[in-house]
Amino acid sequence: MSRMTVNDQPVQFDMNPDTPLLWALRDAANLTGTKYGCGSGDCGACMVIVDGEALRSCLITLAEAEGRYVTTIEGLARDRSHPVQQAMVAEQAIQCGFCTPGIVMAGAALIAKNADPGEEEIRAAIPNLCRCGVYPRLVRAIQRAGRVVRRVETISAAPAPGITSEDAAREVPALSAPQGGD
């Protein structure tokens, strides 16, 4: 059984330790914001933050995640108030949305380390592929998020979705992959 902390909650996965973290998060924990894109680490759609580092969850196994602290897009800010999330919306850096969670996670990891990154640093830290081509707006969004973190500006954004306090505080049981089925 693999144990780790996911989105501030201790969890244990009763799955093969060689299972990619991506599939444990999606199939067992129902955290489907972490997207499957390529399965080979090229696209970044499955990016999560592990112990402060943006990592592709398709490339890290449950055994490698054992005892670590994992944050998915669902755990970044339950009310969608993280500066990178807000800046992505404000800068209209979201098109189809498929790659967005991975980009947000890579951006959040970068901003946590450096709230004033330059364009080169942003492009290096966010290797995600986006077929919609939002890259210029993405750079502006990450820089804007940095300004928010540095308290140079604020962003007025749409209201957060309704999440009850009971839902936010619920306990997470041991998780395993669904059995059987087609």
From TrEMBL:
Ranges in a coiled coil: none
Key words, A-Z: 2Fe-2S, Iron, Iron-sulfur, Metal-binding, Oxidoreductase
Pfam families, per database record: Fer2, Fer2_2
Keyword Aminoacyl-tRNA synthetase on entry: no
The keyword Iron-sulfur appears for this protein: yes
Domain of life: Bacteria
InterPro entries cross-referenced by the UniProt entry: 2Fe-2S-bd, 2Fe-2S-bd_dom_sf, 2Fe-2S_ferredoxin-like_sf, 2Fe-2S_ferredoxin-type, 2Fe2S_fd_BS, Beta-grasp_dom_sf, Diverse_Oxidoreductases
Region (Disordered), start-end ranges: 163-182
Gene3D superfamilies associated with the record: 3.10.20.30, [2Fe-2S]-binding domain
2Fe-2S ferredoxin-type domain ranges (all copies): 1-76
Name this polypeptide is given: (2Fe-2S)-binding protein
Origin species: Parerythrobacter lacustris
Phylogenetic classification of the source organism: Bacteria, Pseudomonadati, Pseudomonadota, Alphaproteobacteria, Sphingomonadales
